[in-house]
Every structure is written in structure tokens, then in C-alpha cells.
Write a structure and sequence with these properties.
Elements lengths: L7 H5 L3 E7 L5 E9 L6 E9 L16 E2 L7 E6 L5 E5 L13 E5 L7 E2 L7 E7 L5 E8 L10 H14 L13 E2 L2 E2 L4 E8 H4 L13 E2 L14 E4 L5 E10 L2 E10 L5 E5 L4 E8 L5 E8 L9 E7 L6 E3 L7 E6 L5 E6 L7 E5 L6 E2 L6 E7 L6 E6 L6 E5 L5 E3 L11 E9 L5 E9 L5 E7 L16 H5 L4 E6 L8 H5 L8 H14 L4 E11 L1 H10 L7 E5 L5 H7 L3 H7 L2 H6 L13 E6 L7 H15 L9 E5 L9 H20 L11
Parallel strand pairs: 33-34, 33-35, 35-36, 36-37, 37-38
Antiparallel strand pairs: 1-2, 2-3, 3-4, 5-6, 6-7, 7-8, 9-10, 10-13, 11-12, 13-14, 15-16, 16-17, 17-18, 19-20, 20-21, 21-22, 23-24, 24-25, 25-26, 27-28, 28-29, 29-30, 31-32, 32-34
Length: 688
């Protein structure tokens, strides 16, 4: 069977849904869709609209209607949200006819009544995104970066920020002076600008009379010139009248921040701390539709002794009557929203290789599981007026697509501008019992044909993660199209199996996670449709760490691919972008006992090392040191060795540009083909 997974050029050209919003009246759903640009070297987002359907649609059938494209620009659009009147807000760097020299992303509005999109901001540093919209007023909160030297005078700060930015650009100054930790995040430098929250009254911004004042936004913080990094990861919601912002903000610590819950008066900028505790993170704030009740996730910081439960709490908007709910629910929610009527929360959490939607009653009653299928849900959205619920869902059989979820849990797929591609394989669940009695399960991607198929053990990153939904970047269907059976296991440390399962591998990554992987691989290799003599292992990030650990502890695999991998734990702990976290989950004994570099000399399987220089989570030093020590122990006198190093000077943790993704897969195919399938080694053409 020929599918888009058989050809990398076809694969990277598949359109991808990656964002969703629902109008307040519950009739319209907006989607952001990424598609390959004309040069085939990047992706460009556009906004589409589909009907939301209703709860009378038969579960499992597509809702009526078709997808309509709303935007088209060379710069693309993102960050979609609806205003209370149904106007569509989005962020884009598309040209502004009245500010031709401004190239940064701004906030735009597409009126519900029709007409052209119009910019609402003209900030020199651009807009980060829409933070929240108010349900019964025209206030919208957004994030924007301002240089600290611009001052705190609301009348002049934006103009001063523009002047300073121009001076740095003209003088080609990119230096950053840091006064606190951290200095980097994932793939970008922090600073010199600092994130602020701004508010805009759409009733004024939507009138032509105010077009020239579009950039004159009040700044919403503590009215201080330097909030530091406290708003880098701000999340929150506006009260219905737009007067107060509920937010999760950072509090500075020696090597980072802890998250706290605050309210900020949108008129005065006064910040009231509701919940802030040493060694506790308060995150994921949600606000009820009536603006009276808040919910959030409270987590005591992990230590080398183990991870702690992520607790769901509620309180009044002023912080009164805080109490925990869902006390018997051994899950870690990834998102929380209030259902219509505010009697319960809707949540998504990993569970058994899926990510269902749950209903958490506020009165302390038992948590209910709403969806009972093999899908992973995300991006829950609730219509303000009607309570209609939409979301995105995916599995390893199909990528993200929009659905509507009824109050009884029935799910109806909505129209989508990105048709689901036909997969070249099917999924089967596999499991085994570990030596300590723990159940270890995973997905097996089985290609067409009777086999026996070569086997690829693919280990997920995280490590607090689960193989439960589609990834365009790490896609086993591409391997299945080339005949491999792909094992996607969830070993110790994986989420969706309870706190005890996570802690089986805590401060001991090379112990239960490793034996779990080997045990479930044994079960799959015993299948008649799998060829146990032709096997390989691969993984990225934590999966790359495990690939390195496996390489030093067994010769059962013909080849091993390690991407963005941790190699020297003591080195990594001080060079990663978030050393506060990593130093809190390992002690000195754990780092020493679980350091894969100690076993470099024992590596027998050929290894393909892959790393990007812009990876700040797992810095390039890990890949460089691994490559150096492979050469130290395994290179011949003339420097040759069976290992390979694929290096991306301008890619990050994931390798995101489409043509680099093609090169990534071509190299992996060639390397595995040589060592697993017996093919002749052929260097990918674009690698010279």
C-alpha cells in the first residue's frame, strides 16, 4: 500500500491542525492549520473555520459542514481567540499598511460581521500572544516583551522601548546582561526584554478613530520597570467584567522560579498573592464562568526521594476556602477548564496509553471518565453561552483533528481542512509483568504483511511522558512504511499509570526503566510476526539517554539511534537550561549510579548520534562528549568507526524545519538499513 508515509516529500507536505478556539455562541470553531510553504523549507499557519455541530450529531459520524479558510498571508497566523462578540483575534507579522517598517508580530482582529482583518497593536517588540479575553466586556489581556531600560512611565515606556530596540539593531548589539538565573529556555536566549501583560479595550481598538493609538496600551503588571522573568510562562484568565486577571506567575529563587497564583487589578496593576509556598508550585489556573471560583494544580516539589502527586484545588476568587478535590484520583492533569454551569471541572490526563477527558465535580464527588476510547484529547474549549465543548484529539493511528464532546461523553468528529492520512500499519497493545510485579504496557505498530518484521524499539522522551498520541516529528508510521514493527513502550517514569509507577524509576533511570524496556521487548520478539534477529533501538531526549544506557548494557540490538541525548549527567545538570529541576530529582549517588558515560567502553552496537546546536534543554556538549568518547574507545588507528554523528548547527531539541526533518529520517533509514536490513550504506544526497 502506497501512503504519504512511503515518501518523505509527501509526508512533510501533509497539512497539520495545531490550534482550536470556539465562538462564545458555540456555533463556530476556528482552527490553525500549518502547511508547507512554496519553498518547502518551512511551515505557514492559516486560520480556518468549521461548524461546531451540536449534541444531536451521531457519535462517530462527521458533523455537517465544510472547512472555510479565513486568512492567507506570507507570514502566517497563530494564537487564535474569540472576543465576547465573536470577533476573531489572532497574532501575525503580516504587513500593516500604516506601519510598513514594523516587522514584528502584532494582535489583529477579524470582525465577525465580515470585512478585512485590522491590526490592534503596533509594538516595536511585537506581541507574544493572547492571554485571556473577558466574557462580558471588551477587555483582552496579551503578553509583550519590553526592554527594562525603557522605564515604567506608562506614557513613554512604549516609545522608549522602540527607541532602545532601534539603537541595539543599528549598532548590531545582541549582548545580554543577566542578573538572575536562568539565561536560556529550550531553544532561545532569555532577555534582554522582559515579558509584560498588557490590556486592550477592544471597543476602542475596533474603531477607526483609534487606529493611530493602537500601540498606546496600558501595561498590566506591578507597575515596576523590571518584573524580571516572573511573567515568562504566565497563564491566566480574566473575570467576566475584565477588571481582574487571575494568573500563575513566577517568584524568583536562587536558580529559577517557583509558580504562584495571584490576581492583578487591571486598572491599578496591583498584584494580590493568593497562593505562594516554598517548595510548592501552583499552576494551571482556571476561572469559573461566573468569575467567583478558581481552580488550579498544586504540586509539592519533587526531591530525589520521589515525585509528589499533582493535586487539584479550588478556592474563591479572593483565595477564600481553599480545599483539595479529586483526592482519590491518581492522575496528573494536563489542562483544566470549568464546564458550563460551573459545577465541575473538565480535565485531560494521561491514562494507560491514552489521554481521556474527565469530569471533576466541585462538591467532592468521585471523578468521572467522560471518554472511553483509544484517543488522546487536548485543547479543551467551552463555549461561553451554550457550554458546547470542543477539543483536538489524536492517537498513533491519526493526527490531531477537531471533535465535539457531548455531556454524556459521546464524541463527534468535526469537519477538518487537514484530512486524516491513511496509515500503513495498525496498532496493537502489548504488555508484560516486571520482576517487581508492575504491569508494563505499550503500543506495537504492526506493518502490512505477515512478516516476520524487523523490530525497532522506540523510547519516548520526558521522562514524565507517555506514548499516547501522534507526533509529526517522531512518527513511527514512517518506519512502518519501510517494513519495521515499532514498539512504543511506557516503562517506569511514564505517566498515566499512577504515582507509584513513576517513582519506580525515580533517581534510578538506569534501573526499572531499563529492565521494563528489555522485558517488554522480550515479549514482542517472541511473536511470530517479529524477527528477533533484526532489531534496533532508538530514542530522543530521555529516550536518547535510555538508548545510551542500553548501548552500554547489552549487545542485543544491531544498531542504536540516540537523539538529543543525556550522556554525562554531572555535566548536563549544570549546563541545561533548567538546572534547578534536574538537581532536585537526582542526588549525587543517583547521578553517579545512572551515568551512561561510565559504560562507554562496553558499547558494542553501532550508534548514530544526532544533536542540534540550538538545543538548550540537552546542550550540544552532551552529543559532543558522547562522540568524543565513542572515538576514544572504539575508533581504529585511522579514526574510522562504525558510529555516525549527524549534527545540525541551527536546529533545536526537535529538528523542526521540514528539509532537516527529511535529512534526519533519510540518515536514520540509511543507518538502520545498513545494520539491521543488510543494505549497503548510502550517504543521504543533501549531506554531500
Amino acid at each position: 500500500m502506497t501512503t504519504p508515509f512511503s515518501d518523505l516529500d509527501q509526508y512533510i507536505a501533509l497539512p497539520r491542525v495545531d490550534g482550536i478556539a470556539i465562538s462564545p455562541d458555540g456555533t463556530r470553531v476556528a482552527l490553525t492549520v500549518s502547511a508547507l510553504d512554496p519553498d518547502r523549507t518551512g511551515y505557514r499557519r492559516s486560520i480556518w473555520q468549521v461548524p461546531a455541530g451540536d449534541d444531536t450529531d451521531a457519535a462517530g459520524s462527521d458533523a455537517a459542514g465544510t472547512a472555510v479558510r479565513l486568512t492567507r498571508s506570507a507570514k502566517g497566523e497563530s494564537g487564535i481567540a474569540f472576543s465576547r462578540t465573536g470577533d476573531l483575534l489572532f497574532v501575525s507579522a503580516r504587513p500593516d499598511a500604516d506601519a510598513a517598517d514594523l516587522e514584528t508580530a502584532q494582535l489583529w482582529v477579524l470582525p465577525a460581521t465580515g470585512g478585512e482583518a485590522r491590526p490592534l497593536t503596533r509594538l516595536a517588540g511585537g506581541v507574544g500572544g493572547v492571554l485571556a479575553t473577558a466574557a462580558s466586556s471588551d477587555v483582552v489581556a496579551l503578553t509583550a516583551d519590553l526592554l527594562p531600560s525603557a522605564g515604567s512611565d506608562l506614557a513613554t515606556v512604549l516609545e522608549a522601548d522602540a527607541v532602545l530596540r532601534k539603537a541595539r539593531k543599528d549598532k548590531k548589539v545582541r549582548a545580554i546582561l543577566h542578573e538572575t538565573y536562568p539565561v536560556r529556555y529550550w531553544d532561545h536566549d532569555l532577555g534582554p526584554a522582559q515579558t509584560h501583560v498588557l490590556t486592550l479595550d477592544l471597543a476602542e481598538g475596533l474603531t477607526e478613530d483609534h487606529a493611530e493609538d493602537a500601540a498606546a496600551l496600558p501595561r498590566l503588571t506591578d507597575r515596576t520597570p523590571a518584573p524580571g522573568r516572573s511573567l515568562d510562562h504566565v497563564a491566566g484568565a480574566l473575570t467576566p467584567d475584565g477588571s481582574v486577571l487571575l494568573a500563575a506567575v513566577g517568584v524568583r529563587e536562587a536558580r529559577g522560579h517557583r509558580s504562584t497564583i495571584v490576581t492583578i487589578d487591571c486598572t491599578t496593576g496591583h498584584r494580590t498573592v493568593l497562593f505562594s509556598d516554598v517548595d510548592v508550585d501552583h499552576e494551571m489556573p482556571a476561572l469559573s464562568h461566573d468569575g467567583r471560583t478558581i481552580a488550579w494544580v498544586r504540586t509539592v516539589r519533587s526531591t530525589p526521594a520521589g515525585a509528589n502527586q499533582q493535586e487539584v484545588w479550588t478556592a474563591g476568587i479572593n483565595g477564600s476556602d481553599p480545599h483539595r478535590i479529586a483526592t482519590d484520583w491518581d492522575h496528573w492533569p494536563s489542562e483544566l477548564v470549568f464546564e458550563h454551569g460551573d459545577h465541575a471541572l473538565l480535565a485531560v490526563a494521561d491514562q494507560d496509553g491514552r489521554a481521556p477527558v474527565f469530569r471533576i465535580p466541585l462538591d467532592g464527588a468521585a471523578v468521572e471518565q467522560l471518554t472511553h476510547d483509544d484517543w488522546a484529547y487536548s485543547s479543551l474549549r467551552v463555549a461561553e453561552a451554550t457550554g458546547a465543548v470542543v477539543a483536538l484529539r489524536a492517537s498513533w493511528a491519526a493526527p490531531l483533528h477537531p471533535v465535539r464532546i457531548a455531556t454524556d461523553g459521546a464524541v463527534t468528529p468535526l469537519a477538518t481542512p487537514a484530512p486524516l492520512p491513511e496509515a500503513p500499519a495498525h496498532l496493537e497493545e502489548v504488555e508484560t509483568t516486571a520482576a517487581d510485579g508492575a504491569r508494563v504496557r505499550g503500543w506495537l505498530v504492526v506493518p502490512e504483511g505477515d512478516g516476520p518484521h524487523p523490530l525497532l524499539l522506540w523510547i519516548h522522551g520526558g521522562p514524565l511522558n507517555s506514548w499516547n498520541q501522534w507526533s509529526w516529528r517522531w512518527n513511527p508510521m514512517l518506519m512502518a512504511a519501510r517494513g519495521y514493527a515499532v514498539l512504543l513502550p511506557d516503562p517506569a517514569l511514564s505517566t498515566g499509570y499512577g504515582l507509584d509507577f513513576v517513582n519506580r524509576g525515580w533517581n534510578a533511570w538506569g534501573q526499572a526503566p531499563y529492565t521494563d524496556l528489555m522485558a517488554i521487548t522480550d515479549v514482542v520478539e517472541a511473536r511470530a510476526d517479529v524477527d528477533e534477529t533484526r532489531t534496533a533501538a532508538m530514542g530522543g531526549s530521555f529516550g536518547g539517554y535510555m538508548a545510551n544506557w542500553i548501548a552500554g548494557h547489552t549487545d542485543r540490538f544491531r544498531a542504536i539511534v540516540t537523539h538529543a541525548s543525556l550522556w554525562a549527567l554531572d555535566q548536563f545538570n549544570g549546563t541545561t537550561d533548567s538546572s534547578q529541576y534536574w538537581s532536585s530529582i537526582f542526588d549525587a549517588t543517583g547521578i553517579e549510579a545512572n551515568d551512561p558515560r561510565r559504560f562507554a567502553a562496553e558499547i558494542a552496537s553501532p550508534m548514530l548520534v544526532i544533536h542540534g546546536d540550538k538545543d538548550y534543554r540537552v546542550p550540544i556538549g552532551e552529543g559532543l562528549r558522547l562522540w568524543s568518547e565513542l572515538a576514544e574507545h572504539h575508533a581504529a588507528d585511522d579514526g574510522t568507526m562504525p558510529h555516525r554523528f549527524l549534527y545540525f548547527p541551527d536546529e533545536n531539541h526537535w529538528v523542526l524545519s521540514p528539509q532537516h526533518a527529511v535529512v534526519w529520517y533519510e540518515t536514520v533509514f540509511a543507518f538502520l538499513g545498513q545494520h539491521v536490513l543488510g543494505d549497503k550504506w548510502e550517504r543521504p544526497e543533501l549531506l554531500g
